[in-house]
């Protein structure tokens, strides 16, 4: 079982509309719902790859109850839910039909309390103590001060039980990591710039960051950059992986599928070259469909051979 923790989930609503202008009255053509939040996307992708995955997340209010039903009934997952007094946020994406245009509107982050944060940590600790957890994924931003240090606490709990940890976060949650470090860290170039406090970090800056994490015990560090090459450090050795050129349908969630592919490949004990190609193929397969995490293993296998991996020194 792979536990996929999301501290800042949401209900993703996608409204497809005809061409429009601000200020117009626009009638939608289609409305779709899916439970968002990076860890939920990872769990969905892992399930499509044939892995047993359980989302672990906060949900609150009527929107939260709807999200739980979607996870259980539509995604056929068995989520671990920590109820919150604050309602789960909604992200409305307005997609213009017959074009690549989309605009997203985000609700404010929920105010998770210290008691609710402690409850989530206790749930994860209990599941780790039961055994049978093969990996722990920690994905997405931290919504409130009470949750900023939660990933760091969960890493310590998992490491004490020799469970590999895969981290994809930024901002306060990443800055709070200390002492115990995850097995792997994945983030994108924009998130790396926030962490480094540099608006346009160079490739050398990214390599230096990954080298620093490697010295702290991180086995695999990856920085993605949209359709551009991925900067990787694995066991102290530098790599560059270039994805194939595609026409994306929806790039949102591709990074989550990359993390899912990394976990899947890690648990399958793939060699580094194939591990990176598998993870990046999962990201590309995600970009070719609309719903985050809805990857097809056959498409992943087809794309894997189109990813180019090269070493860049050590």
Describe this protein with a few key phrases.
four-stranded mixed sheet, 314 residues, alpha/beta, UDP-N-acetylmuramoyl-L-alanine:D-glutamate ligase
Describe this structure in words.
With 314 residues, the protein is an alpha/beta fold. It has ten helices and 14 strands. The mean pLDDT is 95. Helix 4 (150-159) links the parallel strand 8 (135-139) and strand 9. It has one domain (2-19, 28-311): UDP-N-acetylmuramoyl-L-alanine:D-glutamate ligase (3-Layer(aba) Sandwich), CATH 3.40.1190.20.
Topology:
Blueprint: E1 2-6, E2 10-17, E3 30-36, H1 38-48, E4 53-59, H2 61-74, E5 80-83, E6 89-96, E7 102-106, H3 114-130, E8 135-139, H4 150-159, E9 165-168, H5 172-175, E10 184-188, H6 189-196, H7 203-215, E11 220-225, E12 228-234, E13 237-242, H8 254-267, H9 272-287, H10 297-304, E14 308-311
Parallel strand pairs: 1-4, 1-8, 2-6, 4-5, 8-9, 9-10, 10-11
Antiparallel strand pairs: 2-3, 6-7, 11-12, 12-13, 13-14
Mean pLDDT: 95
Global geometry: globular
Helical region count?
10
- Structural class label: alpha/beta
Q: Kindly state the percentage of residues in helix.
A: 25-40%
Q: Can you tell me the CATH architecture? A: 3-Layer(aba) Sandwich
Gyration radius, rounded: 19 Å
Strands, count: 14
Query: Any idea of the CATH class?
Result: Alpha Beta
How far from one another are the termini?
34 Å
Could you give me the name of the CATH homologous superfamily?
A: Ribokinase
Strand content: 25-35%
